[in-house]
Q: What sequence folds into this?
């Protein structure tokens, strides 16, 4: 690579001298000393956060975890995945504190998702998705500081259950709707009887008052 080069906006490169970390170079016209300095390569990072094999992107990134099976507190198997939004704030830590940052981000987010699902019942997982997102993001914050990154948010994309579980949930929902309908009908009948009794009472009072007059 040439001695002089341009680092684009919102990117940086890391310079090594004799194989050791030397400095971070941000946007603008930059240079490196011949023979004794080299730009840190990102060959094992894939395409995420990596441009041309040596440019680190500093903008927010999105990592989608693969779908994995987890078990809830009430022992129901669910398949879940999530999208993790993050960005590099310390390039030195991002390169030297973890072997391959993009892969590690996906792995740690998936592990946090599975462990948190395991502390909740199925009804809670389905009803409190936003709360689950926040718990996962909070759990990742300590690791993020060690790796020189910041997790901006976590969003669970999909939660699937087995066909047997889905069928049981539908039956439960149908039973709950029927129960509510029966309760509503009983309450309506009781209210109608009360109104009828009240009307009859008022009629009796009015008739008595008429006879008294």
A:
């Amino acid at each position: 690579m040439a001695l002089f080069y341009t680092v684009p906006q919102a990117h940086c490169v890391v310079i090594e001298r004799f194989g050791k970390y030397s400095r971070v170079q941000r946007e603008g016209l930059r240079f490196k000393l011949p023979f004794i300095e080299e730009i840190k390569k990102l060959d094992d990072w894939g395409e995420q956060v990596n441009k041309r094999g040596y440019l680190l992107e500093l903008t927010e990134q999105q990592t989608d975890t693969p779908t994995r099976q987890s078990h809830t507190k009430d022992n129901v198997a669910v398949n879940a995945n999530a999208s993790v939004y993050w960005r590099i704030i310390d390039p030195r830590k991002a390169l030297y504190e973890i072997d391959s940052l993009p892969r590690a981000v996906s792995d740690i987010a998936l592990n946090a998702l599975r462990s948190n699902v395991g502390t909740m019942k199925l009804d809670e997982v389905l009803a409190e998705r936003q709360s689950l997102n926040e718990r996962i993001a909070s759990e990742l914050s300590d690791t993020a500081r060690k790796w020189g990154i910041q997790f901006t948010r976590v969003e669970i994309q999909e939660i699937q259950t087995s066909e047997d579980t889905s069928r049981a949930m539908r039956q439960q929902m149908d039973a709950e709707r029927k129960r509510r309908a029966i309760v509503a009908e009983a309450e309506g009948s009781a209210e109608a009887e009360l109104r009828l009794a009240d009307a009859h009472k008022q009629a009796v009072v009015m008739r008595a008052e008429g006879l008294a007059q």
Summary: The helical segments are 91-96, 101-117, 122-127, 129-147, 163-212. The CA atoms of residues 11 and 57 lie 5 Å apart. The first strand starts at residue 4 and ends at 17. The radius of gyration is 32 Å.
